[in-house]
Amino acid sequence: MNNFIFLIFILQICVFIKLIINLLKRKDEYASDTTIPLREKLILSTSCIVCAIIVYTNNTTYYSIFVLTGMIISFFGDLAMAGVLSFSNRLIGGMTLFGLAHICYFVGFIFTIIFMGKFKIGISILNLFILIIFICICNKFIRNKFNGDIDTFNIGVVYSTLILNMAINALWLAFASQGKFIITFIGASLFIISDGIIAFMESQLFQIKHSGLVIWITYIAAQMCIIISPIIK
Q1: Other Cβ atoms closer than 10 A to 8
Q2: Lower Cβ count inside 10 Å, N or C end of the chain?
Q3: What local confidence, expressed as pLDDT, does residue 152 receive?
Q4: Alpha carbon distance 130, 166 (integer Å)
Q5: pLDDT tens digits, residue range 79-109?
């Protein structure tokens, strides 16, 4: 693994250790995302972009190009969720930007599968069928229980569908590459965990202990897994 990427890992670990120490000093065990300082968020988010640039320069493929693009968009998504970028609805603004990032990841995965010669139209149709079922389930069983703004719910369903689509294609990529890109699928799975926690917190279905820290640990781990997957031997 590139020495610079290793140093980025060390930097991220140090930041999380500092956050854990600071969190242990707090009395609020249900500390929300806003308890993580903006400086640490920027350091972690920027470190992912730097890592993606390093991977791209050493592994110039459609995968690394689209992942780098997605990381840059995710950076602005982080700014939106932190309230630095001005949106009338912080959550909708963040989901829109992160949704675009997930589209970039998906495109990178599909291009990689195509150039491997492993693209199957039947799998694409099955993927589409799963996404349609997911949307129907959301509208039939969750919509009536959602107490927030309906636009937020609709954007949330679209965003969740994009994440699911990205995860399905990450799994497809892992199988198509005979396990080479299994780290990509692990990253996609961590994204589902991270965004799932955000969804539960924002909808106030229940509180999660130290949610802010858990969200950022799983989020950065997800990003890093997707970034470094092509150079893992």
Answers
A1: 21
A2: C
A3: 77
A4: 12
A5: 998 888 888 888 889 999 999 999 999 999 9
> What pLDDT is stored for residue 15 in this prediction?
95
pLDDT at 202 over 70: no
Nearest partner of 229 among 124, 104, 101, 109, judged by Cα:
109
pTM higher than 0.85: yes
Do 51 and 228 meet the contact criterion of CB atoms below 8 Å apart?
yes
Please enumerate in sequence order all residues whose Cβ is within 8 A of that of 176, keeping only pairs 6 or more positions apart, or say none: 113, 116, 118
Nearest in space to 168 (alpha carbons), one of 151, 191, 202: 191
The number of angstroms, rounded, from the C-alpha of 25 to the middle of its chain's C-alpha atoms is 28
Burial degree of 198 (CB within 10 A; 0-12, 13-18, 19+): buried
- Given a contact cutoff of 8 angstroms between Cβ atoms, the answer to whether 127 and 110 are in contact is no
Closest to 158 measured CA to CA, from 83, 102, 231, 216: 102
> What are the pLDDT digits (tens) for 157-197?
899 999 999 999 999 999 999 999 999 999 999 999 998 88
Mapped onto helix, strand or coil, the DSSP state of residue 148 is coil
Query: Would you tell me the crossing angle of helices 211-228 and 62-81 to the nearest 10 degrees?
Result: 160
**In terms of residues, how long is the chain?**
233
213 versus 198: which is more confidently predicted? 213
Helices 62-81, 90-116: crossing angle, 10 deg rounding: 170
